[in-house]
Amino acid sequence: MSPRHRxxxxxxEFLFGAPYYPEHWSExxxxxxxxxxxxxxxxxxxxxxxxxxxxxxxxxxxxFSLFDQTIEKLGTRGIRTILCTPTAxxxxxxxxxxxxxxxxxxxxxxxxxxxxxxxxxxxPGFGKESxxxxxxxxxxxxxxxxxxGWQTDNEFHCHINECYCPACxxxxxxxxxxxxxxxxxxxxxxxxxxxxxxxxxxxxxxFPYPDRPTHANPGHQLDFNRFLSDSLTAFQSAQIKVxxxxxxxxxxxxxxxxxxxxxxxxxxxLDFYGVDVYPGFSFQPGRPEPDPVWSALKHQExxxxxxxxxxxxxxxxxxxxxxYLLPTPRPGQMRLWAWQAVAHGADGVLxxxxxxxxxxxxxxxxxxxxxxxxxxxxxxxxxxxxxxxxPLGPKLLGTTTLVEVGVLVEQDQDEAHGTMPLxxxxxxxxxxxxxxxxxxxxxxxxxxxAADSFEGLRxxxxxxxxxxxxxxxxxxxxxxxxxxxxxxxxxTATRNRHNGVFSITAPARLDxxxxxxxxxxxxxxxxxxxxxxTSVASDSYFEILQPVKKGGARVLxxxxxxxxxxxxxxxxxxxxxxxxxxxxxxxxxGTHFGVENTLQVLEAILSQETITPLAxxxxxxxxxxxxxxxxxxxxxxxxxxxxxxxTKLPAGKNLLTAKATGASVNLPAYGVAVIEVRNR
Length: 680
Known about the structure:
Blueprint: E1 15-19, H1 27-30, H2 33-39, E2 44-47, H3 52-55, H4 65-75, E3 80-84, H5 92-97, H6 124-141, E4 147-151, H7 166-180, H8 183-190, H9 218-246, E5 251-253, H10 263-266, E6 274-277, H11 292-306, E7 309-315, E8 320-321, E9 324-325, H12 333-343, E10 346-352, H13 377-396, E11 400-401, E12 405-409, H14 411-419, H15 427-440, E13 445-449, E14 459-462, H16 470-481, E15 485-488, H17 511-514, E16 516-523, E17 528-531, E18 534-537, E19 541-547, E20 554-559, E21 574-581, E22 584-589, H18 598-606, E23 621-628, E24 631-638, E25 644-646, E26 652-654, E27 659-661, E28 665-667, E29 672-677
Parallel strand pairs: 1-2, 1-10, 2-3, 3-4, 4-5, 6-7, 7-10, 12-13, 12-14, 14-15, 15-22
Antiparallel strand pairs: 8-9, 11-23, 16-19, 17-18, 17-20, 20-21, 21-22, 23-24, 24-29, 25-28, 26-27, 26-29
Helix pairs in contact: 6-9, 7-9, 9-14, 12-13
């Protein structure tokens, strides 16, 4: 099986544009839009995700005239349209008719009309309304040559990702019955003998409310989170079915990487996935720049789910709502962030939004144009991007991001950690630390879903995957035997897929691969381990490892004595090991990857393995590679406000300047270079 994360989109041209809201503007305001868009190099807009009330002002009375006119006007200038199903913001007449369709939060409080995402997607009636409005739009636009694709809804699970309404309870019970068949199987899987939780029928099962009055059953909680994802996927699938039938030539996507969604499964029905990226959310007090790793991981999560993707909303200016205002991007950062998306696999970038709105909850969320409709710096930077993407699109399409070092991701692992975090680092935190260090070393790295093929990967990190099954264990062991390098951290393979602890010693089903067993675990803030001549801080969590008797693992680091010299079980015991298995190696770290230890642990591993960086550059420069169809493209991204030098580059041509490049390149502040490598 070819890796899904290396799958290109089938787009015919690189997409560049912005979300557009003609319903927010008068005809006079819109008068120059098509000309300005075309002059900026736009070839696409996204429309209608919040316009249900305009398209259906009263039940069954449709009016698509504004969008017909807008699509036609833009189309004559070569600007195509992505339409959206408008189900993220149902109209007032629908909420008045069906107040019982509102989402309910965990405190039992129903949502109200006046914002968005207030309807429950598990309400059968709303599901029918979703299909009805989708069918009406699809039928109206099915022959419009200017409509090229669709986005389902908008940012599923952005604001509220749980619902505790009666419809959800009933749907959850039905989901459980389908999964387990018999109630005895559920009782066994969840271990309901604990705290007298045994159920006699599926109809007795409540929601797993947290802290009502104390902690919920972790198996119950994990299944509820899985249900939230599966039921949302079913809601989207009903829309997809309508759109596919109406016009098979349309592509279909969605925008957003949010909680309680198994993105691997959710993306299966889409042609490619999409994501919205606002680097301003990563600003931290005392840090002058946004964190480039934060946005890189947003792209990577999307790419790991479906392969190449589209950014449907890329930050273009300061953005803010009632409680916050994101810092304004500095000159050059808007372009830098767009190219960062491309460097990680984007085949299209739409900057949010065309013009800053004068009313509503997002009046201070900057668009390309300001409130007064006068083009200024942001428009000029935007147009400069368009001038680059238009000629380079054919070079980009068909290439995918090269990944030699993968960091595994699986929604189940994040969900399982959330049910029993113990105050410890979860998979998300650990993969962020690992990815940051891999990027700092300028290796060809990326996130890879556990369900994907491991073909082409040389090193694979398994950060705190508490859940394990036979299929995944065999897949990981085969990767090592065939020559791969596998690196796992504490708590790996400690629970089964029902979120219950294994009866066999950890790492369950992987002990032979790693050549160790976990003899004891616990937490202690001051515990450190000795790695070579270096004393390394651990996460507060620790495990005492024991090499198996025959052909066991080699000990690379041991736990140190406590500073206060008090007795402790860990000092002197193995903390970090490696075993050669088949043609490969398996490393096991008896703590979590964190700020204090990731650099040292990766140094110990990578010093033993031969893997060449893409280039030599300062930490502030990001280096990635896309390849395919006989082309290899290196992306150099300077995330600092000063000039930086990149060296040890292969000879090539900078596609942004059309000039030949040698072994080194100087990047200006927030500068970008895209080097087509010679003699691929």
